[in-house]
Design brief:
It is a single chain. The chain is α/β, with parallel strands linked by helices. Helix content is 43%, strand content 22%. The protein has ten helices and nine strands.
């Protein structure tokens, strides 16, 4: 099953009737769950899908996809228009139903932080090609951030892949580099005034995909 913004339902049927229809097409359809979720998310059973707001449409599509329990479910930007509380409920629901009924679920999202707590593996695409396929834990450990005096940060980053860098004032520099540091190197860096910090999985994925043009501050620095 492929779930995206362009998914259409028969306009003559209400939400309740669409859920009843689901059992006709999907052998693992969980009708009681779909009805419970409809009530939980305050979607009126007698409403037509086309009359829902963008966020409510996303919520109903999520309910439909989860209740279908197909062997493979692909979500393309499933949280479009949802408010923060509904997004949180969606990811919790997805995890709980996956535990109860294991199957393959693929989430396509530009907001990794919203869904990372339900992920096992991450596939990063750039220009339509696979850039990286790894576990979420490996992605979190892929890079580190270094901030401190420009000369010291550059020396420490020499020979390593620089994913991102940004000037800090007139003498400082922040770099995100691939993480191949030994503990002795980290201790030496600290003695030279360089701070080593972790980088979130979402930031790492962003730096891998986007051009390495620095931060917004650098745009202003170049224009002066």
């Amino acid at each position: 099953m492929f779930i995206n913004d362009d998914m259409n339902f028969p306009t003559s049927l209400t939400l309740h009737e669409l859920l009843q229809m689901g059992a006709t097409f999907y052998p693992n359809w969980n009708y009681p769950l779909s009805e419970d979720l409809l009530r939980y998310f305050n979607l009126k059973p007698g409403t037509a899908y086309t009359r829902l707001s963008t966020g409510m449409k996303s919520t109903f599509r999520a309910i439909f996809a989860i209740a279908a329990r197909t062997p493979l479910t692909l979500f393309d930007e499933p949280t479009t228009g949802m408010d923060a509380s509904v997004r949180n409920d969606f990811t919790r629901l997805l995890l709980k139903d996956y535990i109860e009924f294991p199957r393959t679920i693929v989430l396509s999202s530009h907001h990794l932080s919203e869904v990372e707590h339900v992920l096992e593996d991450v596939l990063i695409l750039k220009n339509g090609e696979v850039l990286m396929h790894t576990s979420l834990d490996s992605l979190r450990e892929y890079a580190v951030g270094m901030s401190g005096p420009k000369s010291e940060v550059e020396a420490l980053g020499a020979g390593r892949e620089i994913l991102y860098q940004q000037k800090l004032g007139t003498e400082g520099l922040y770099q995100v580099v691939e993480n191949h540091f030994q503990q002795e190197e980290i201790e030496t860096a600290k003695q030279k005034g360089v701070t080593i910090s972790g980088v979130s999985a979402e930031d790492v994925s962003t730096y891998l995909i986007q051009p390495k043009n620095g931060g917004i501050e650098d745009v202003y620095n170049r224009s002066e």
